Amino acid sequence: MAYFGFISQNYKMSLRFIQYILNSSTGEGRVFISFAKLLFVIIHYELGNESIVRRQMIFFSKDILIYNGEAHKLILNFLEGDIRNVYKVQERRRQLAFLKVEIENIMKRDASIEILAEEYFNVYSWVKSKVEGISVANVIKQKAIAVYGKAPF
């Protein structure tokens, strides 16, 4: 439900579910928790909660990097630079485009990353939505049409 809230840009609902997941976590399902923590940080980034993003990146960074550390590290580096206002508008676009290409390269090297990402939180779709200026839902819809010939919704 947290991911569906995120896809539909209902970030507050998504946060409620993510907080429930993180608060009721027993330590099992480390990959799931890793993606949940990354989604938690990105939701706060989308909401413009820069101080929360900074704190949570420090608090969660080791846990987020447990699975797919390479791609997630790139994302955390981008978020850190963006919230510190390192990037101007044009540079931010270039950094997002670079991030998209780098994640594509990682997925080409290891197809299991895309499979797990689609199960938990497809960070590539989020980055692509930022680069193209469309919603995450539209990115997912475009992929479904390309793969299956029709949209799932």
Please describe what this structure looks like:
The longest helix is centred in the middle third of the chain and has 21 residues, at 89-109. The two termini are 16 Å apart. The protein has 9 helices and no strands. The model has no long low-confidence stretch (mean pLDDT 82). The chain has one domain. The protein has 153 residues and is mainly alpha-helical. The chain has helices spanning 2-7, 11-23, 30-46, 50-64, 69-83, 89-109, 111-119, 123-132, 136-148.
How do you describe this structure in short?
The chain is an all-alpha fold and 153 residues long.
Shape: globular
Enumerate the spans where pLDDT stays under 50 for 5 or more consecutive residues: none
Give helix and strand order, one letter per element, not per position: HHHHHHHHH
Question: How much of the polypeptide forms β-strand, as a percent range?
Answer: under 5%
Major sheet size, sense and barrel closure: none
The Cα radius of gyration reads 15 Å
